[in-house]
């Protein structure tokens, strides 16, 4: 299949950011999804993701498996993912039982939370949960990277530099006493 714009596998000289702006439900996400060159770049480097469905619309929840598959197909395998049921303020219109979402999240090893962006319920908590887990993962990777061993087989992480504090117990011993002769 010939490509009107040339071969995208060639060296890239420029990177441009293009944003999609418009009302909700006009098809912005579908435009993005149809343009596959953008899809991989969109997920590349992501360390966290929030899969959001409208708890008053069952269809949006039913699409979560497809979105999760796409995310896992393009993102890092260690990405932190949270399933979010939004619009908890519209409880009387609920179309997705909490139990259904909890089961899905447990089966797929995701965090789960119900939020209300309108009332700001659990919004900060959701972000902090994801960010805290990302931090834990990054810290473990840093710790693992720093546990290399030196030529003697000792951990370089445990190596330190002796610091002599003036007036401390080691300073007198090094100088041969406190009161000079």
Automatic annotation (TrEMBL):
<dbReference type="Pfam" id="PF00071">
    <property type="entry name" value="Ras"/>
</dbReference>
<dbReference type="InterPro" id="IPR001806">
    <property type="entry name" value="Small_GTPase"/>
</dbReference>
<comment type="similarity">
    <text>Belongs to the small GTPase superfamily. Rab family.</text>
</comment>
<dbReference type="InterPro" id="IPR005225">
    <property type="entry name" value="Small_GTP-bd"/>
</dbReference>
<dbReference type="InterPro" id="IPR027417">
    <property type="entry name" value="P-loop_NTPase"/>
</dbReference>
<protein>
    <submittedName>
        <fullName>Ras-related protein RABA4d</fullName>
    </submittedName>
</protein>
<dbReference type="InterPro" id="IPR050209">
    <property type="entry name" value="Rab_GTPases_membrane_traffic"/>
</dbReference>
<dbReference type="GO" id="GO:0005525">
    <property type="term" value="F:GTP binding"/>
</dbReference>
<dbReference type="GO" id="GO:0003924">
    <property type="term" value="F:GTPase activity"/>
</dbReference>
